[in-house]
Write a structure and sequence with these properties.
Shape: globular
Radius of gyration: 19 Å
Helix content: 25-40%
Largest sheet: 8 strands, antiparallel
Structural class: alpha+beta
Order of helices and strands: HEEHEEEEHEEEE
Number of strands: 10
Distance between the termini: 41 Å
Length: 158
């Protein structure tokens, strides 16, 4: 009887742990961690703060890594990360189209869902994914300058 009660408690505890709210992740980092810890994790991954483009209140932080072909812009409020945007630096329209498609396919596999596609032209595409913890938006704009952005937005907790 004692073993049965113990097993029941273990199953309930497991269900409580797995049924909790899922956080939005950015390349393996939970976006629900404190903003300073999130920035420290990015610093350990080789990113550096671009002080010329970061505001003095540290509300918006721009980070770059010499080995990455994108820059990060992070927005925080009250020590909590609200949004993160990757801005890719690619020189040709074909390169941005290929990367956009690859990233869209990767997010479909990773998240197990199809995106909402409010724009789906050759030179302007938007794919919006919704997760339990937030939203991921891929935006391609090939007009005068090729532009590819990935925006991660955390859902506000109620």
């Amino acid at each position: 009887m004692k073993k049965l009660i113990l097993a029941l408690v273990a199953v309930v505890a497991l269900g409580a742990c797995s049924g909790g709210e899922k956080d939005l992740k950015y390349r393996g980092l939970s976006m629900s961690m404190p903003f300073s810890a999130f920035c420290d994790s990015l610093l350990q991954r080789g990113f550096a703060v671009d002080s010329a483009k970061t505001d003095s209140a540290f509300t918006r932080v721009v980070m770059a890594n010499p080995t990455a072909n994108y820059r990060l812009m992070l927005a925080q409020k009250g020590g909590v990360l609200q949004a993160l945007q990757e801005n890719y630096q690619i020189s040709t329209n074909d390169s941005t189209r290929q990367l956009w498609q690859q990233m869209r396919d990767d997010f479909e596999k990773e998240l197990g869902t199809w995106p909402n596609m409010p724009k789906h032209g050759d030179d302007h595409k938007v794919a919006k994914f919704e997760t339990d913890g937030g939203f991921i938006t891929l935006t391609l704009e090939n007009t005068y300058t090729p532009t590819l952005q990935v925006l991660y937005e955390v859902k506000s907790k109620k």
